[in-house]
Amino acid sequence: MAGADTPAADQGPAEPAVRLEVSQVAELPVPDEGHEARMYALVTVTVRRPPPRTPRTGPGPAHAPHHAVVFLIDHSSSMVHPPTRMAAAWDAAAAAVHAVPDGTYFAVVAGSERPTLVYPAPQPGTPGAPVAADDATRRAAEDALRAGSPGGGTAIGGWLTRARELFRQLPGNGEGFVCHVLLLTDGRNEPAYESGDRLTEQVEACADEFTCDAVGIGDDWRSHELLLITGTLHGVAYAVEDLDGLTERLRDLTREAADRHLAGLRVRLYRSERAELRSFGQVHPTRRELTPVPAPEPTPTPYVTEFATQPWGDETRSYLLSLTALHAGDEAGSEVMLAEVELVRADGDRIPVTLPPSVPVLVRWSGDHGLYSRMHPDVGHYLHQEELVRVFEEGCAALRVPDAGTACRAFGRAWQLAVDVGDEAMQKHLRKLIEPGEDGSVRLLARIRPFDIESARIRVSHTVTPR
99-108, 368-377, 391-400: which has the minimum mean pLDDT? Predict the structure, then answer.
């Protein structure tokens, strides 16, 4: 019998807690004949991992996901102009490497017109493979990284393809691994080495194989390329102007990736014959289009649509659902279920979790204007953020013409929306483009740096929660 000082058997971590909520105002007016009614609902999913039942110092439980990360660090010739940029990148990348937890597989790739595996050095005739992190491998990776020689051009698609090849060299061909890429670059893709179409092809070829966060430094990268990469590969893009903050950013991103413990979670939508699905997309913490995946039904049905989500840490994500509600002669006040939202698990994911019950999306037909004219405040908040994106892009397009008047009006509307939704970070970015007056008017600044436009386009892909 164990004594009082004998440690209890290690029971491993408790199950993650998963919560599903649907926010909506159910009332809609009865549409005129030949017209339709639009229903919006906000679907919010929260995952929280409880602390382990007993302290654990060794590897995780057998059912926990394995993690792997590949660092893609720009080593093109522009990284040494000024020399402090490459030095800051090495410092930040080294800090990120040292943030990789023990047992996580990792590799470091230097990117130029072609990718070079910096660590671990591949054996002759082999493609190389990530190694498990420990004190020795992390120190060796830092040494190899700092011994690099920057030079050449930029072909980011090739870097991503190299990361995909490395993940396929993991034990079991990477089966059961949560794979992530952290990309750092100061430049745009160069057509002499890789066309825009080729970049898109290679990014799309990596979809669903790993996630990717991207960080732009300097002033020669392009937001549309970083957003293409992070949008397709379900990551987050950041612009870092002050290199003093680069180390913290890369270290934090590495830790966040290592904390993603729940994979295979899907959102399944069952719609009734009284509804048509118009759109379903992520609106927080970043805006992201979602592509339906085949639902594992014995017989495919148009009434079931399933959306995959990427691995979860301790976080909340929100999705905006838009449905067309079909009226079929229901009396005013009658309540009809338009859809049902359910969380399911993809086959093969090992960590145990109890999922919450499904939640309905309802409609109540009403003739009371005071009821059907309302909108749930959280739905309205994210619709305003969707408009913020649209008018900001209108302003950017007008600047390219150039059409200062249209740009000023668009950025002015973007400013008002940023104030309304409480997006202080976007307000800070917009102040580098316009000067807002106390009377609500705005003035376009005479000098606007390209970096300020590009970094604002990155910022507008992020959203804030309702106040």
Answer: 368-377
Task: Look at residue 294 and tell me if it is in a domain.
Answer: yes
- φ, ψ for residue 285 (rounded to 5)? -80, -15
Burial class (CB in 10 A: 0-12, 13-18, 19+), 220: middle
Contact 209, 179 (CB under 8 A): yes
**Residue 113 burial (C-beta neighbours within 10 Å; 0-12, 13-18, 19+):** middle
Residue 445 domain-assigned (yes or no): yes
pLDDT digits (tens, 9 = 90+) for 184-213: 999 888 999 999 999 999 999 999 899 999
Band of residue 1 on the pLDDT scale cut at 50, 70, 90 = very low
Cα gap 163→68, rounded to integer Å: 11
Overall domain count for the chain:
3
> Would you put residue 34 in left (φ > 0), alpha (ψ -120 to 50) or beta?
left
The two tokens of residue 357 are 């019950």
Domain that holds residue 384: 377-459
CA 251 – CA 259 distance, rounded (Å)? 13
Amino acid letter for position 157: G
pTM of the model: 0.90
Out of 325, 354, 372, a domain closes at 372
Q: Does a structural domain hold residue 272?
A: yes
Secondary-structure breakdown of the chain: helix, strand, coil percentages, each rounded to the nearest 5? 30, 30, 40
The string of DSSP codes covering 302-369 is TTEEEEE---B-SEEEEEEEEEEEPP-SPPTT-EEEEEEEEEEE-TT--S--PPPPPEEEEEEEE--H
